Amino acid sequence: MYGSVGFWVGALVETADIFINGTARGTLFIFELIVFGLLGMIFGLVLHRSRENNRRIVRSYHTSLESLANAVAAKDDETNGHSKRVVRYSVLIGREMGLQHRLLQQLEWGALLHDIGKIAVPDAILKKPGALTDDEWTIMREHPQMGYLMVKNIDFLKEGTDVVLHHHERMDGRGYPHKLVGEEIPLLARIFAVADTFDAITSDRPYRKAQSIEHAREEIARHVDTQFCRECVEAFLRLDTDDLLRVQEEAKILDYETVQLQKLKHIS
Hints:
By secondary structure, the chain is mostly helical. The protein has twelve helices and no strands. Helices cover 70% and strands 0% of the residues.
């Protein structure tokens, strides 16, 4: 298809040039038409091949990052379905804000790996059923920095590393690890913070059942300019409830797969 489109584009370009400048007649016109058509066809085929190669590269990048995310899921019972959901929520918000495709891709990858640093957190802390001590919280709060150190040298993960490092920052400067304030927090991390909190409120936790989407919307709106970026929250509030429900329904399949993974891990 790219070749035939390129042929006709090339032919049309040459035809337009001839009509404007009146530089060819008869056989010469037909010859130039064919030559420019063939050049257009070659360009179209090269462009198609380039795009196919880029798509393959992006797919291989995504597969590699999913493998890393699955390593976290194997360690933390709650991470797999959570990671997949917040990826979808983040992209929905980013798309509503009009992010370009490249930044949406970085947002998706950063969201997928946001908890990669939990690999470095001891199981005794990560899976502790009760409240953490102050010392344990200090260790837990190191996971964004640890995650960043793990992914900072991945060449294709550029702005995505901002999500890994800064997803627990707050607009009022009371977050961690760097206590950034306002727009000091990178945009992708601000978007993710909204998605992450929404998923936390609408998911089952050991200490409470999942809350409604409407309750989550109200709770997030209450913390604009203190915990969350106003622009990101406004975009989130514009999202269709059906789109959010669709993410939750599809994630139930992933949650089932996580349970099976954990069963196999305990058996082995």
